[in-house]
Structures are given as structure tokens and as C-alpha cells.
Amino acid sequence: MAQALHDIPPTRVVELAVNLDDATGEVVGRASEALLAAGALDVWTTPITMKRGRPGVMLCVLAAEADRETLARRVLVETGSFGVRSRAWDRVVLDREWVSVTTRYGEARLKVGRLGGEVVSVKPEFADVERLAADAGVTVGEAMSAALAHADAWRAGASGEGGGG
Prior knowledge:
The chain contains four helices and seven strands; from the N terminus they run E-H-E-E-H-E-E-E-E-H-H. It has helices at 25-37, 68-79, 126-136, 140-160, and strands at residues 11-20, 42-49, 55-64, 85-91, 95-103, 106-115, 118-124. The chain has a four-stranded antiparallel beta sheet, with helices on one face. Helix 3 (126-136) packs across helix 4. The mean pLDDT is 91.
């Protein structure tokens, strides 16, 4: 029986955000990389229009509550911004596991997401697909198709075993 979403305890995370109108794309890219390396759960950017019609970018960081201060400091240092906004969120995440499969191009990992033990998502790890494509001299699309075929087969087998793996 599927587990109800409200039965899964949420985790608390914080979102840090800063609007930048004077940072180059290189600075924003470097800041994103530095934030991920410093422990951010995710980093994303959104193009925005700022006062007086100036183009800008909103840089957002998802972080564990314990990392709020460290990552807010990193945002300020990396971007030169004079302030960072933050807000707390509750989030529900799937249980995750990695499964290795062997495609005709080589080995790739699949990220498996489970909700209450039930498999709800199976996706090839993109870095593995890129590596397979480069090593085999094929396009990323070809390597992805091979990995997806194995993901579908793995999921079908998992479903046939009552959601196991």
C-alpha cells in the first residue's frame, strides 16, 4: 500500500536569495559552483528586471538550516552583494538509492526514488551518460536512450517484485 504524503516527515531547509544587477555571467557561474562546493543542496538563477528597467539575475540557494550562515556569507563574498534574503521551507523528499546497470556502451548509475518503499522515479545519472557517450564516440542522445531502456527494464523488474529492486 502506498504511503500517504502527509505521513512522511518533512525536512527543514532554507532558501537564500540575492538580486544581482552588476555581476557578470562569469561571476554568477563561479558563485554557483562555489556554493555547491560549500554544501548547498541546489543553486539556481532566474533572469529578472530590476529598478529602472535594468536586467539582472536572482541567485537562489537551497541549504540545510545548519548551513544558512556559512552559505549566506559565501553569497556575499562571491557576488559582492550588500545583502541576502532568507526564508525557511518544509520539504518532502523521496528516499534515494543508486543502482548500476550495464548498457551496450558501458556501466551507468540509475537514481531510484522511493516513496514509502514504492519506486516512483528512475533516472539515469547524466554525468554517467555523458561519459558513456564520450567513451563510445556516440551522441549523448544515443547513450541516454540506452540508459533509459535499462531504467525502464529495471523499473519493470522492480514493480514485478512488489516495488523492490
